Amino acid sequence: MGSVYVAGRGISAAEVVRWTKAFAEYVPQRRPLDVLDLGSGTGRLTPGLAAEFQGRVYGVEPSDRMRAEAPAAPGVTYLAGSAEAIPLPEASVDVVLMFLTFHHWTDRLQGLREVRRVLRPGGVALLRTQFADLMPDLFWYEYFPSARAVDAGMYQSVAEVRELAMAAGLAPGADVVQLVAEEPRTLRERYERLRHRALSTFEHLPAAELDAGFARFAADAEGDPERVMPVYSASMLVLTRPS
Questions:
Q1: Across the chain, what does the average pLDDT equal?
Q2: Phi, then psi, of 198 in degrees rounded to 5
Q3: Taking Cα atoms as reference points, which of 37, 92, 43 lies closest to residue 60?
Q4: pLDDT value of residue 2
Q5: CB 95 within 8 A of CB 125
Q6: Cα dist. 71→24, 45, 48, 152 in Å?
Q7: Which of 75, 105, 143, 227 could form a disulfide with 50 if both were Cys (CB 3.0 to 4.6 A apart)?
Q8: Four-residue CA torsion sign, 169, 170, 173, 178
Q9: C-alpha 195: how far from its chain's center?
Q10: Alpha carbons within 13 A on the beta-carbon side of 150
Q11: What is the DSSP letter of 85?
Q12: Is the CB of residue 94 less than 8 Å from the CB of residue 115?
C-alpha cells in the first residue's frame, strides 16, 4: 500500500518547495514554527515542512505501512494516531496541515476539535481539501464516467465545512484560497502516475469501468505522449484558533 502510494502520489522536491512556500503565506512569519502534518501518509511533505518552518514537525498517520515508507529527517517525528485522537499535548503546535485527508476522517467534528486542542492560541490550520461545490474539472474524468460523481460525493460543501470548523471552536477565513503548486505534466506522465490507482476515487469505481478507462487512457498516452496537460487550482480553507 505504502509503496503504491509513493509511486502514484509522490511529489517532486520542487513541488514540495512550492507547496511549503505557498503554505508559508498563510501562517505567522516568525520562525521557528512547530507543525503537525495530520495524516502525513508516506511523509511526502513532512521533511519539507521542517525545512520551511524550522521547528519541530510531527507526522501523525494511522497506517503503519504508510509510516514505514516515510523518510527520516532532522526535526521530524512520526507518530501513530488519527485526527480524532492526536497524540500531542494541548497547545503544542503553531500550524496544523491537513493535506487531502479530511474526507477520510471518521468523525470530522471531533477531528477539528482535536486540531483546535493541539493548536496554540493564534495558531493556524490549513485545510487543503476538495469541496463538493468547488470540484475541479479534472481531464481524466473523461476516461471514467462515474468518477466525477464519486469524487463529489466524498466531500462536503464549503458552507458545511465552515459550520463544522466553527462548531469545533476554529475561525474560518472569509474565502477559500486557491493555490497552484503542481508542476505541469505530459499526458504520458499523468498516465504513469494514475495507472497505479492510488487515488481513493478508484476504489469506488466498477472494475469494468476502470479497465476500459485505463485502456483508453494508455492508448491516448501512447499516441500523444508529450501533450502537456492542464494544471488545476487547489482549494484550501485557512482556520485559526482564536487567541
A1: 93
A2: -80, -10
A3: 37
A4: 42
A5: yes
A6: 22, 10, 11, 32
A7: 75
A8: negative
A9: 20
A10: 15
A11: B
A12: no
Cα gap 116→164, rounded to integer Å: 12
Q: What is the pTM of this model?
A: 0.90
Q: Which three cell numbers stand for residue 10?
A: 509522490
Q: For residue 153, what is the DSSP state?
A: H
Q: How many residues comprise the chain? A: 243
CB 238 within 8 A of CB 116: no
Residue where the block lists cell 519541530: 56
3-state secondary structure of 222: helix
pLDDT of 112-145, one tens digit each? 999 999 999 999 999 999 999 998 889 999 999 9
| Grid cell for residue 161 | 465545512
Q: Name the one residue in this structure whose C-alpha cell is 515542512.
A: 49
b/e 11-44 (16+ beta carbons within 10 angstroms → b): beeebbebbbebbbebbeeeeebbbbbbbbbbbb
pLDDT at 5 over 50: no
Q: How many helices (H) and strands (E) does the chain have?
A: 9, 8
Nine cell digits for residue 80: 501513530
* Helices marked H in 58-206: 64-69, 108-118, 147-154, 158-167, 187-194
How far is residue 227's CA from residue 243's CA, in Å, rounded to a whole number?
49
